[in-house]
């Protein structure tokens, strides 16, 4: 039997009430990510494998996911305030 991790969805309001700032960017556009990351101290980065895999197939989805992760890493390198990249 596989162990399963159950995640509780936290409403955005709960996070913003605790001081979190939530922003959006295009994972396929490094400049968009740099703009969204400005002033960040912590970045919790998540790729979007399933959208591209469903549209392009698994192998192409892997390539898109790798490119998205690379974009986030490279954009984060441009943020002088960044202390943690997760």
From TrEMBL:
Alphabetical list of InterPro entries matching this protein: NAD(P)-bd_dom_sf (IPR036291), NmrA-like (IPR008030)
Annotated ranges, domain NmrA-like: 13-86
One Pfam family from the record: NmrA
Naturally occurring in which organism (per UniProt): Talaromyces stipitatus (strain ATCC 10500 / CBS 375.48 / QM 6759 / NRRL 1006)
This protein's name: NmrA-like domain-containing protein
């Amino acid at each position: 039997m596989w162990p399963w991790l159950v995640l509780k969805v936290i409403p955005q309001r709960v996070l913003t009430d605790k001081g979190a700032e939530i922003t959006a960017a295009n994972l396929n556009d490094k400049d968009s990510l740099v703009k969204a990351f400005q002033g960040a101290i912590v970045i919790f980065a998540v790729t979007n494998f399933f959208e591209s895999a469903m549209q392009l197939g698994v192998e192409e989805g892997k390539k898109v996911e790798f490119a998205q992760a690379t974009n986030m890493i490279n954009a984060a390198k441009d943020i002088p305030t960044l202390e943690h990249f997760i």
